[in-house]
Amino acid sequence: MTGQPSQTIRVAVLGADGRMGRAVCAAVDAAPDLDLVAQVRAGDDLAASLDGVDVAVDFTVPSVTEANVRTLVDAGVHAVVGTTGWTDESRGRISDHLAARADHGSEVGVLIAPNFGLSAVLAMTFAAKAARFFESVEVVELHHPDKIDAPSGTARHTATAIAAARREAGVAPSPDATETGLDARGADVDGVRVHAVRLRGLVAHEEILLGNEGEQLVIRQDSFDRKSFMPGVLLAIREVVSRPGLTVGLENVLDLS
Ligand SMILES: NC(=O)c1ccc[n+]([C@@H]2O[C@H](COP(=O)([O-])OP(=O)(O)OC[C@H]3O[C@@H](n4cnc5c(N)ncnc54)[C@H](O)[C@@H]3O)[C@@H](O)[C@H]2O)c1
Ligand SMILES: O=C(O)C1=N[C@H](C(=O)O)CCC1
């Protein structure tokens, strides 16, 4: 529960049977300052599983994650959320919910990050920095075929950051003369085209293509193994206890200066 967490942070993992959940349980188990006290699976009663929990880590599915986070906030449990599918609206609702609880003295922190991999966070950051210098920009994300959402949360976060940087710099939309086609131009995320590839053998990958007359910059990151997300997840667990309110993106926790 909130308040002064004890020396050891007591952690619950939601989605403990999933690909990420299993990796997070193993990583928490191996960390000397963290104690894995609950593993929550589909069908379990979440509210009843939170006794003595300081931080809950959610790697479930897009359709349940918002309700999970509300339950955690109501129980005074900090949340680290890796599940994707969040929108401005759903994040806004959680932010409002946290603010209402803060009025009553609650200091719960919620950290939502579409990607805990260092290479992905840096790729997004570099892309947003580069975006204003190029006429064209498109994002390609590539994942394993068992992923249920597209485009990926990472690609949506990247496109939104690129769009914001270009808006701020007054850059025109990427040129595109396409008149016809079979839906081949990808999703329009905030004015940035995002393409999703699903291929057996992949884990999680992203490429940002930036083009000018006569030149191209490609920023690419690859997560070959889910172990790549674990340092970021563990950092988020340790940080969220002292960050009340909503934090979106691991870039706001890492020192990238
Ligand atoms: N932020 C990141 O760095 C990062 C990295 C990898 C995956 N992800 C995202 O994490 C999510 C999970 O990915 P995955 O590959 O582990 O998926 P997965 O399908 O392997 O695991 C999801 C698990 O959640 C369980 N589940 C469903 N509803 C539940 C509920 N109400 N309570 C508890 N458990 C519930 C499912 O039974 C399943 O075991 C996806 O949204 C994915 O995009 C994010
Ligand atoms: O395996 C997945 O699913 C992943 N999802 C995230 C996303 O949607 O961005 C991040 C990487 C892995």
From TrEMBL:
<keyword id="KW-0457">Lysine biosynthesis</keyword>
<feature type="binding site">
    <location>
        <begin position="153"/>
        <end position="154"/>
    </location>
    <ligand>
        <name>(S)-2,3,4,5-tetrahydrodipicolinate</name>
    </ligand>
</feature>
<feature type="binding site">
    <location>
        <begin position="15"/>
        <end position="20"/>
    </location>
    <ligand>
        <name>NAD(+)</name>
    </ligand>
</feature>
<dbReference type="GO" id="GO:0019877">
    <property type="term" value="P:diaminopimelate biosynthetic process"/>
</dbReference>
<feature type="binding site">
    <location>
        <position position="41"/>
    </location>
    <ligand>
        <name>NADP(+)</name>
    </ligand>
</feature>
<comment type="function">
    <text>Catalyzes the conversion of 4-hydroxy-tetrahydrodipicolinate (HTPA) to tetrahydrodipicolinate.</text>
</comment>
<feature type="binding site">
    <location>
        <begin position="82"/>
        <end position="84"/>
    </location>
    <ligand>
        <name>NAD(+)</name>
    </ligand>
</feature>
<dbReference type="GO" id="GO:0009089">
    <property type="term" value="P:lysine biosynthetic process via diaminopimelate"/>
</dbReference>
<feature type="active site" description="Proton donor">
    <location>
        <position position="147"/>
    </location>
</feature>
<dbReference type="Pfam" id="PF01113">
    <property type="entry name" value="DapB_N"/>
</dbReference>
<feature type="binding site">
    <location>
        <begin position="113"/>
        <end position="116"/>
    </location>
    <ligand>
        <name>NAD(+)</name>
    </ligand>
</feature>
<feature type="active site" description="Proton donor/acceptor">
    <location>
        <position position="143"/>
    </location>
</feature>
<feature type="domain" description="Dihydrodipicolinate reductase N-terminal">
    <location>
        <begin position="9"/>
        <end position="116"/>
    </location>
</feature>
<dbReference type="InterPro" id="IPR022664">
    <property type="entry name" value="DapB_N_CS"/>
</dbReference>
<keyword id="KW-0560">Oxidoreductase</keyword>
<keyword id="KW-0220">Diaminopimelate biosynthesis</keyword>
<keyword id="KW-0520">NAD</keyword>
<dbReference type="GO" id="GO:0016726">
    <property type="term" value="F:oxidoreductase activity, acting on CH or CH2 groups, NAD or NADP as acceptor"/>
</dbReference>
<protein>
    <recommendedName>
        <fullName>4-hydroxy-tetrahydrodipicolinate reductase</fullName>
        <ecNumber>1.17.1.8</ecNumber>
    </recommendedName>
</protein>
<dbReference type="GO" id="GO:0008839">
    <property type="term" value="F:4-hydroxy-tetrahydrodipicolinate reductase"/>
</dbReference>
<feature type="domain" description="Dihydrodipicolinate reductase C-terminal">
    <location>
        <begin position="120"/>
        <end position="254"/>
    </location>
</feature>
<dbReference type="GO" id="GO:0050661">
    <property type="term" value="F:NADP binding"/>
</dbReference>
<dbReference type="InterPro" id="IPR022663">
    <property type="entry name" value="DapB_C"/>
</dbReference>
<dbReference type="InterPro" id="IPR023940">
    <property type="entry name" value="DHDPR_bac"/>
</dbReference>
<comment type="subunit">
    <text>Homotetramer.</text>
</comment>
<keyword id="KW-0963">Cytoplasm</keyword>
<dbReference type="InterPro" id="IPR000846">
    <property type="entry name" value="DapB_N"/>
</dbReference>
<feature type="binding site">
    <location>
        <position position="144"/>
    </location>
    <ligand>
        <name>(S)-2,3,4,5-tetrahydrodipicolinate</name>
    </ligand>
</feature>
<comment type="pathway">
    <text>Amino-acid biosynthesis; L-lysine biosynthesis via DAP pathway; (S)-tetrahydrodipicolinate from L-aspartate: step 4/4.</text>
</comment>
<keyword id="KW-0521">NADP</keyword>
<dbReference type="InterPro" id="IPR036291">
    <property type="entry name" value="NAD(P)-bd_dom_sf"/>
</dbReference>
<dbReference type="GO" id="GO:0005829">
    <property type="term" value="C:cytosol"/>
</dbReference>
<dbReference type="GO" id="GO:0051287">
    <property type="term" value="F:NAD binding"/>
</dbReference>
<comment type="similarity">
    <text>Belongs to the DapB family.</text>
</comment>
<keyword id="KW-0028">Amino-acid biosynthesis</keyword>
<dbReference type="Pfam" id="PF05173">
    <property type="entry name" value="DapB_C"/>
</dbReference>
